[in-house]
Amino acid sequence: MRHGDKINNLGRTAAHRKSMLANMACSLIQHKRINTTLAKAKALKVFVEPLITKSKEDTTHNRRVVFSRLHNKYAVTELFRDISVKVANRPGGYTRIIKLGNRLGDNAEMALIELVDYNTTYDVKAGKKKKSTRRSRGGKKAEQAAAPQAQEETTSEA
């Protein structure tokens, strides 16, 4: 029984799981987004977010700790050089999981996992609009139509 066991074993041995998560993390760091199954994406999020947090402080110790988990010096370099600069002000939540539906072959739930700061589609600052209500009579259109008329009256008087 797996009472209270928080690790999703993904049907693999410990060595295979660690190797797979390290490879997926390197791919995520290199490509900024990858498609995978939902279970693997959730396991990868738990694996990669502490590494990104460690990359925010560039010390030899942190580089060695991250390298011991990733086993790829190019991914470690990319993480400490580029990604850590982008996530410097973010207190956590560096990745986003988007569900994509089910795979045709085996009906597995698929997901896209991506680094949040590298996607401009979901940019919160750009996506916010001013709240508008439908209660008012006239609204913006009436104000815009009234503004040119007011300008014409002031120019004709002068």
UniProtKB/TrEMBL annotation:
Gene designation per UniProt: rplQ
Biased composition (Low complexity): 144-158
Family statement drawn from the similarity comment of this UniProt entry: Belongs to the bacterial ribosomal protein bL17 family.
Signal peptide boundaries: none
Record bears the keyword Ribonucleoprotein: yes
UniProt feature, compositional bias: Basic residues: 127-139
Subunit structure: Part of the 50S ribosomal subunit. Contacts protein L32.
Record's protein name: Large ribosomal subunit protein bL17
UniProt entry keywords in alphabetical sequence: Ribonucleoprotein, Ribosomal protein
GO terms for MF: structural constituent of ribosome
Domain of life from the UniProt record: Bacteria
PROSITE patterns per the UniProt record, alphabetical: RIBOSOMAL_L17 (PS01167)
A Gene Ontology cellular-component term: cytosolic large ribosomal subunit
Gene3D superfamilies linked: Ribosomal protein L17
UniProt region (Disordered), positions on chain: 124-158
Annotated GO biological process: translation
